[in-house]
Amino acid sequence: MKEFDPPDQSASIASVTDKVRPVAIGAPVTSVYFLGERAAFVGAEENVFLVTGAGEVSPVAVHSGGILCATSDGDRIVMGGDDGKLVALDANGEVALLATDPKRRWIDNVALHGDGAVAWSAGKTAFIRSGKGEEKSLDVASTVGGLAFAPKGLRLAVAHYNGVTLWFPNMAAKPEILEWAGSHLAVTFSPDNKFLVTAMHEPALHGWRLADSRHMRMTGYPGRVRSMSWSAGGKALATSGADAVIMWPFASKDGPMGKEPAMLAPLQARVSAVACHPKQDVLATGYSDGTILMVRITDGAEILVRRRGTAAVSGLAWNARGTLLAFALEDGEAGLLDL
């Protein structure tokens, strides 16, 4: 991989740093979402920080301790905490308690479905509540590492040690297990419902083609993959974990099997967060040194959004129209970019 000077030393790269509106969060941030047009910065503990278009920051208390997981469908953010509670926050800033673990175990994974269903996990148990309020649970062989709903039908992927369990909670059939040795954490379905990919505890991804359970090994990362994002249309999967954005191709029926990934925006820093634009072949990527770039997927052209600093980028999010980019760093520095 070639090396070159970081963007803040390069005169050739286009820059929009002067268009970024700083946001004063003042607390560590773990993830970023949009609720409608309002950016929402999920803190490491207790609060979500809602930001108006004018840049006013409103903290909303959602947990009494650490916030361990979060996800959003654009209408609400659902979060789990070390207080054993599952909580939802909507665009109006209203907080709703969805569930409390009877044993007060940590709620450490959460997933949302388009029909309003929500899934969460505590220990070795995955729970699902349908959009109609019906609740079911499934125990797996080891601690749940990640959850994801399939884009079609009510099907839940439960990642754990040595594989993934695929569960149709509305069917009596025994759940299907996709096996692969090792600890599987974050899990995601491809938007076309043909592939399933997990980020592993080791520096690798593993995937299955769902039609025949054929394996896909995606290795070579120097570090663990902690951020994944599907491109608009689902033809590629952008990932962190290296000193460039690693883009795996999923356009063909074989996905990335037998193919090399594209490597975009290499820097002398580790990619820590990726977020693909919802409508165009563009992505935002953040690095361990605080640099943020926008990158065109087709040719790798780069635009500098934020110069490098001290803390790693911990969250990136686009609004649904793709006209606003929000970002946050681990130390609480944050910003908004209007496009």
TrEMBL record:
Gene3D superfamilies, alphabetized: YVTN repeat-like/Quinoprotein amine dehydrogenase
InterPro entries reported for this sequence: Apc4-like_WD40_dom, Quinoprotein_ADH-like_sf, WD40/YVTN_repeat-like_dom_sf, WD40_rpt
Residues of the Anaphase-promoting complex subunit 4-like WD40 domain: 278-338
Identification of the protein by name: WD-40 repeat-containing protein
Species of provenance: Bradyrhizobium lablabi
